[in-house]
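Throughout our pipeline, every protein is held as a single compact record rather than as scattered files. This encoding replaces a full spatial description with a residue-level series of whole-number codes. The remainder of this section carries one protein's record, kept here as part of the documentation.
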Amino acid sequence: MKRYTEESVKIKYSKYLGKPYDTAFKFGNDMWYCSELVYDIYKQQLGIELCAPRPVSDYNITGAEKVLKKRGISKNQLVVAPNDLYNSKQLKGL
């Protein structure tokens, strides 16, 4: 587990409640996927960019091409992945 700070942080989460999961992994569409939610909370509410979004093609997507196409996900589309967040130099291990 990692954290940004040892201090308590208050998050305004009501805008995220009841929103559908973003299976297309797109930023800025009023839906979020798991890593995007964490990324967005840190960036929008705390002013901390944990990592830079990267194109899908930066990741090993071998075997997932059909799923990406079905969901409308482009290889040039920017995303954040759990590993990007975990490896952020902004976070400290507990």
